[in-house]
Amino acid sequence: MRFTSLVIELIRARPRLIVWIAVLLQAAMWLFVALVFYRSPPGNLATLLAFGREYQVGTDLGPPLAVWLADIAYRAAGGHMFGVYVLAELCEIATFVALYHLARAVVGAQQAVLAVLLTMTLLAFSSSALDFGPLVLARPLWALLLLHSWQLIGQRRGNGWFAWSIEAGLLLLTTPAAVFLLLLLVIFALATAGGRRTLRALDPLYALVVVAVLVLPYAVWLMRAETFTLPALPQLSELNGRALHASWLLGGLVLGAVTIPVLAFLNSGWFAGKGDEAPIIYRPRVEPLARNFVYFFALAPALGGIVISGLFGFDGVVGGAGAVLLMSGLAVVVAAGDLIPMRRARLLRTVWAAAVAAPAAGVVLASLLLPWTGTGEIATSMPAREISDFFDESFSRRTNHRLRAVAGETQLASLITLHSGRPHLFIDAEPARTPWMTPARFSETGGVVVWRASDTAGTPPPDILKRFPGIVPEVPRAFEWLVTGRQQLLRIGWAIVRPKGT
Questions:
Q1: What are the Glycosyltransferase RgtA/B/C/D-like domain coordinates in residue numbering (predicted)?
Q2: Which of 178, 187, 234, 404 could form a disulfide with 445 if both were Cys (CB 3.0 to 4.6 A apart)?
Q3: Taking phi first (over 0 means left), then psi (-120 to 50 degrees means alpha), and beta for anything else, what does residue 446 get?
Q4: How far apart are CA 53 and CA 420, in angstroms?
């Protein structure tokens, strides 16, 4: 009697259940890592929240939707980062669920599971799971846009235009890369007979009206702020460097997707035992239009993003790796054929689980072991709550006023703005970035100026002393890391700017 793995049988019988189990387990894993090993937000999340607290229609961080949602989640969780982490994981879940529905429409429910599982390994290495921001929010919106675009073009469902218009408008309110992604949708629609037939109706005009209404406030802000400028084209002498930069971006995407060829190699016939009959995951025949749709949106966003980023010298791929690689797993499944044998299912399952868990394990090991090497800091090991509580209470005791603003080193100042009082962030080195707080207003309301202390006297850096010539430095405050190890304590120099009239 031949036995089949329980997972294979569940993929055949309950494909949607497998998808939900996989994405929920991954979300739970990352939430556990955040709650246990993150004492401060990752990346620029603290600065994002400081901007979100102001509810500006637009900032130099880009469109406002991600910034607003982060602040709403933070407030809803009672001033705890857990709310923002949950929001980031909800975006991950929505991305994979939307991808599953799109893949099911193309290759059937069973192979759609394989597409989702492959994509999970890819995004695990190429994009952040907890650093919520525009790139994280763009992923589910892009996945939903692709799903409804296929329903409109490939399945001729005319009732999907309203949802499409809402998602397009929200994507434009999330990231500037939305223009590039939406342009790709227009190019595909114009290049295919099914797409041109879809565009001949009046529904696309109504959808454009909805999109225009959604983005109108941000468009007005862009025009008033006079910040809408195209990046300058590189000089001829810069082309070699830009081409090298583009090749590094391409290499980063390829490296992030390395698990997919590894799994494909392990599932090849070379590892099949003699006489073994591998279980088959089958699908209905894929239509040519569906095949073209998958291949186009698996290749065009990535290649186009690399070219644009390389040409203009952007640090990352336009749209983010998570969005431009979203269709790669489905493209591999489409290319694999109507029948996919699952050889050595136990080995494949182990490698897949290791690939999905590896980034989280890397975060844990880095938090626990790197401090003992003394070679660098782990930003998420800063005691954000202790830092914000100390400076808020110190300012209140010294001035008998509530702390209203924080300036100095942006990373440290952003952590202090996470306190329950939510003081304003003032980026004194670039005041235009924080229009809600000017130097004159900061002098009037008072606040705390912070910096990394380089000596026991807490001498301010020259640039901070130049911008705040009258400050008197206090004794630096030392804070312990999550794991101190061999590295020095986190010493923060600080000074109080007293409110006028005190």
A1: 63-221
A2: 404
A3: left
A4: 12
- The three-class DSSP label of residue 447 is strand
| C-alpha distances in Å from residue 128, one per residue of 21, 125, 196, 215, 411 | 20, 8, 37, 27, 19
282 backbone dihedrals φ, ψ, rounded to 5°: -110, 170
Element (H, E) at 408: strand 405-408
Q: What is the structure's pLDDT at 481?
A: 86
Q: What is the DSSP string of 229-285?
A: -PPPPPPGGGHHHHHHHHHHHHHHHHHHTTHHHHHHHHTSGGGPPTT----EEE-PP
Which tokens in the block code for residue 168? 């397009």
- Burial of 251: CB neighbours in 10 Å, binned 0-12, 13-18, 19+: exposed
Question: What is the reported pLDDT for 72?
Answer: 94
Separation of alpha carbons 45 and 38, rounded Å: 12
Please tell me whether residue 130 adopts helix, strand or coil conformation. Answer: coil
- Residue 253 CA to residue 244 CA, distance in Å, equals 14
Q: Which residue has the tokens 């329950």?
A: 420
**In 166-302, where do the E strands start and end?**
280-282
CA 293 – CA 268 distance, rounded (Å): 26
Does an H or E element contain 449, and which? strand 447-452
Strand pairing of 477-479 and 447-452?
A: unpaired
Distance of alpha carbon 461 from alpha carbon 497, whole angstroms = 16
240 close to 247: Cβ distance less than 8 angstroms: no
Q: Which SS3 state, helix, strand or coil, does residue 402 take?
A: coil
pTM, to two decimals: 0.91
For 466-487, give the DSSP string.
HHSTT--PPPPEEE--SS-TTS
Contact between 442 and 471 under an 8 Å Cβ cutoff? The reply is no
Q: Annotate 105-131 with b (16+ C-beta within 10 A) or e (fewer).
A: bbbbbbbbbbbbbbbbbbbbbbbbbbb
Through-space distance between the first and last CA atoms of the chain, rounded to whole angstroms: 87
In the chain, DSSP finds a helix count (H) and a strand count (E) of 20, 7
Assess contact for 34 and 81: CB atoms under 8 A.
yes
| Positions in the chain short of pLDDT 50 | 1
| pLDDT tens digits, 467-483 | 888 888 888 888 888 88
Give me the count of residues in the chain.
Answer: 502
Q: How far is CA 403 from CA 141, 277, 375, 396, 479, in A?
A: 38, 70, 35, 7, 20
- Report the candidate in 21, 15, 23 with the shortest Cα–Cα distance to residue 111: 15
196: CB partners within 8 A, 6+ apart: 189, 190
Note the pLDDT tens digit of each residue in 388-439: 989 999 899 888 889 999 998 999 999 999 887 889 999 988 888 888 988 8
Q: What is the largest CA-CA distance in the chain?
A: 89
* Residue 1: predicted pLDDT: 40
